[in-house]
Amino acid sequence: MKMRHTFKDTSGLTLLEVMISVFLGAAILTAAVTFVFSMGQLWGRGADEKLFHKHVRGVSRFLEESFYRSGTKVSAADAEENNGQTGPVYWSSRGGPQYETSEYLTFELDESPGVFVWPEERLPYVVCSLELDEDEGLYVLWRSRLETDFMEDEPRRTRLSPFVKEILYHYIDYTEEDPEWEVLEEPEDEGGFPHVPQRIELVFQYGEERVSRQIVIPGNFQVPPKPPTQDLPL
């Protein structure tokens, strides 16, 4: 006699088991979301400050490298008409009625850097000047010497940083007996014409945080005189 066996399929989940599974899945998902959110807070905390300090380093490095890449463009003949300035960084007025009555700290580059927007190849022999706007930040006025009406037309204007609030000028005279640094809010002048400082100090501000960076002006930093040598007794 053949026996017929029947088997009951018990592989399905009961309603209770489904509810437990949903509850566990929701708990795991909630924990994962909480973890990701907390990590985001951890990594994002202070992100603005980090970006601000990175911006400060980038702007300072750009100006420092630009100063050192600038060539001595002022000849001896021109220097006599330019208040004796012969260094790679000098004071000059710019073209156009808006800029021709003021003096700006100026340097020249063989070609325009990448931050200066230009649709074709980089412009050669670019004259750059620093302009501080107390409300909008630090700008660079620039124009190529090869452009038509170089001194008559106003220069282009590119903002380097909206966070620069001050430029301080550092001077020292090593011919004095006890030379000390003098920090001025306006450039030192004689006879109405400003002197090139040995350093400039950029003051950045973001919210309540203020950060300063000093940049050495090449070609205008005097080396302290060596003390007089004395013969040692034999």
Index terms:
alpha+beta, 5-stranded antiparallel β-sheet, disordered C terminus, 25% helix, 234 residues, 11 strands, single chain, 4-stranded antiparallel β-sheet
Describe the structure.
The protein is an alpha+beta fold and about 230 residues long. The chain is about 25% helix and about 30% strand. The strands form three sheets. Strands 1-2-3-4-5 form a five-stranded antiparallel sheet, with helices on one face. The protein has a four-stranded antiparallel sheet with strand order 7-6-10-11, with helices on one face. The chain has a two-stranded antiparallel sheet with strand order 8-9. A hairpin with a 2-residue loop joins strand 10 (about 200-205) and strand 11.
| Rg from alpha-carbon coordinates | 32 Å
Order of strands in the sheet with most strands: 1-2-3-4-5
Sum up the overall morphology in one term. extended
| Helix/strand order, N-terminal first | HHHEEEEEEEEEEE
Query: What oligomeric state do these chains adopt?
Result: single chain
The biggest sheet amounts to: 5 strands, antiparallel
Mean of all residue-level pLDDT scores:
76
- CA-to-CA gap between the ends? 133 Å
Percent range for β-strand residues = 25-35%
Please provide a brief summary of the model.
About 25% of the residues lie in helices and about 30% in strands.
